[in-house]
Amino acid sequence: MKAIVFDVFGTVVDWRSSLIAQFAELARETGQAIPGETLADEWRGHYAPSMDRVRHGEQPWTVLDDLHRQSLDRLLEAHGLDFDEAQRQRINRFWHRLEPWPDSVAGLTALRRHYTVGSLTNGNLSLMLDVARHAELPWNVLFCADLFRHYKPDREVYLGACDLLGLPPGDVMLCAAHNSDLSAAQALGLKTAFIPRPHEYGPRQTRDLHAEGDWDYVAKDILDLAIRLRSGDSA
Amino acid sequence: MKAIVFDVFGTVVDWRSSLIAQFAELARETGQAIPGETLADEWRGHYAPSMDRVRHGEQPWTVLDDLHRQSLDRLLEAHGLDFDEAQRQRINRFWHRLEPWPDSVAGLTALRRHYTVGSLTNGNLSLMLDVARHAELPWNVLFCADLFRHYKPDREVYLGACDLLGLPPGDVMLCAAHNSDLSAAQALGLKTAFIPRPHEYGPRQTRDLHAEGDWDYVAKDILDLAIRLRSGDSA
């Protein structure tokens, strides 16, 4: 195994707490009451359906920044929240300023000593550059949906990354907090590593609490994955 | 200006001295007489013509690693040099172990404090990952020909990078040691910075010794470019 690619939203960065904190900051600055938790959860609720519209040809190729903006507009209307264009642009960029989980930077740093580490994300490249800078993520390479003009779980994303790496799928491992992402990767011959992020969706999270497939590695977090890989330990 | 993308071979790394040193090492190990300087120069001589065959549709899309191998085989035959398959594979990977010019790492490190810094290279991504690791180049992002399936000076490469950066061409600057590369970028609206590498082609280099266009910046080297950009100085 030569390269490890990572799902980013939820696996490497804590999008929910980061969005809520930025909504709270905006509320303090504007004096407006903003239901930050509800907005964060509902906004993320639009995520998969919005990409599915693109995946199924109901909407032409659209980068995630623009899908986020479309769902934000719908969300604000549903909640009767009145934000002007500048505020909407600012809110949409909340996704560019996400905090890493506590182990992420140390884990990636340890892994890149021995492996190529990259993203394998549905975020667009310009979004991922900002996330990397803000969270100080030490990537070797960024694989983003707009390189392939496909969204995971489309096979073009997983196999496209392997092809650009010049590696057979069996030399590439996907690390993700989501069983469905790993399932798609495994079916195409990639190695898989599951790490649970039991609070990604908040305190009442019900899914992806445990490994649900025969993954090559199951680790506590990214740093623990680095330790297991060095010790030759597996799932 | 928000992002600076770099030509790599010749601009950031010293391919010629690096190839010659590796040929010398191979000669010591095998006891075989190897005309390292001649091979380096002639191998590089095949570079543009081999990409032009792809650019003009005479050969289907082929990554640079494979073009290098095709021209290496021709070169060895022309010189009557007998290397087996394993040796040829090793020699082809000389391009993966290139040394940076003395200012490159310091210059890129200074620039990435204020700009996104990326490659904009005809090398393939897997090749560029090895070069980055070997030379310890602190890229934020790798733009490589195989992302676009086009070689510079095709417009798809320059404009494809701007598109993925989410920036208009005027917010992106190409830094290169080659006037022709800058000319293609400028025609598409990118900013330009020329740095001379007067020994890239050896002691008798005759081209690209001076700026030959109206470039936005002309600097001594990459570190000097970083200093000029901070001081607001221009060409």
From TrEMBL, chains A, B:
Keywords: Hydrolase
Tagged with keyword Hydrolase: yes
Endpoints of the signal sequence: none
GO molecular function, one term: hydrolase activity, acting on acid halide bonds, in C-halide compounds
InterPro entries membership: 2-HAD, HAD-like_sf, HAD-SF_hydro_IA, HAD_sf, S-2-haloacid_dehalogenase
PANTHER family: HALOACID DEHALOGENASE, TYPE II (AFU_ORTHOLOGUE AFUA_2G07750)-RELATED, HYDROLASE, HALOACID DELAHOGENASE-RELATED
Protein name: Haloacid dehalogenase type II
